[in-house]
């Protein structure tokens, strides 16, 4: 049975979403569009309705360059841990589009948001962090629907990014998202295209009743 058109449209966005790095055009995002994708992020589910996210919008070229240089240092640190084929393959992969996108959205997690007793976080403290990830995914899908690209950058030290955007000590910088117009969305993830790693078949991660014994 085929999905109704509106459902098919959602699946289409989910499957078209790509991490983008080299495709950014640098064209500025219309403010209404940016507002819509941030509103989509803010509509995410959150443990105890804590809404523990913050979004710092970074456009200043000097801040983008400073962050890109830090990421380049972390890239070198990771590259030094590789050898042989892994090192050669990694060398071909672009891991960020910080300056090209023209906009960085730094997503923060504030564990104090909503007070000391968050409904649903008493046993699993990470549930706060999970909520922020839900917001990021909403933003990513909304951006895809709007024809924008998003690239998640995690090659950074949290204390560096916290200081760069002035986040207080208790707020955790969870992601730097490069967000911008793109010439196109790649059909195949870069990591797959360069032979770093491929998506595994669904059947390898779906289990019946119990986790499979090794
Ligand atoms: C938590 C997280 C951190 C990531 N960090 C980076 C990164 O630092 N640089 C990068 O190029 N891609 C990064 N990615 C993107 C992944 O490489 C990408 O999602 C994966 O290769 C699958 O490709 P797709 O998102 O296009 O489906 C990150 C993704 C996630 C979810």
UniProtKB/TrEMBL annotation:
Recorded superkingdom: Bacteria
Keyword ATP-binding: no
EC number: 1.13.11.79
GO molecular function terms attached to this record: 5,6-dimethylbenzimidazole synthase activity
Record domain Nitroreductase: where: 16-181
Entry keyword set: Flavoprotein, FMN, Oxidoreductase
Matching InterPro entries: BluB (IPR012825), Nitroreductase (IPR029479), Nitroreductase-like (IPR000415), Nitroreductase/BluB (IPR050627)
Coiled coil: none
PANTHER family in the record: IODOTYROSINE DEIODINASE 1, NADPH NITROREDUCTASE
Protein name per UniProt: 5,6-dimethylbenzimidazole synthase
Organism of provenance: [Mycobacterium] wendilense
């Amino acid at each position: 049975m085929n999905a109704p058109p509106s459902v098919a449209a959602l699946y289409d966005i989910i499957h078209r979403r790509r991490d983008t790095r080299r495709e950014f055009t640098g064209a500025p995002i219309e403010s209404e569009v940016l507002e819509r994708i941030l509103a989509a992020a803010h509509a995410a589910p959150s443990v105890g309705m804590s809404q523990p996210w913050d979004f710092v919008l970074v456009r200043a070229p000097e801040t983008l360059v400073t962050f890109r240089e830090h990421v380049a240092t972390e890239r070198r640190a990771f590259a030094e841990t590789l050898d042989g084929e892994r090192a050669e393959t990694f060398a071909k992969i672009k891991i960020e589009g910080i300056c090209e996108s023209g906009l960085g959205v730094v997503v923060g997690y504030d564990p104090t948001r909503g007070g000391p007793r968050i409904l649903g976080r008493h046993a699993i403290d990470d549930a706060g962090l999970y909520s922020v990830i839900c917001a990021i995914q909403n933003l990513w899908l909304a951006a895809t629907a709007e024809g924008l690209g998003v690239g998640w950058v995690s090659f950074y030290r949290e204390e560096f990014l916290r200081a760069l955007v002035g986040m207080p000590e208790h707020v955790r910088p969870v992601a730097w998202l490069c967000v911008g117009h793109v010439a196109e969305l790649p059909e195949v993830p870069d990591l797959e295209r360069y032979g770093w790693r491929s998506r595994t078949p669904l059947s390898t991660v779906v289990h019946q009743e119990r986790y499979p014994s090794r």
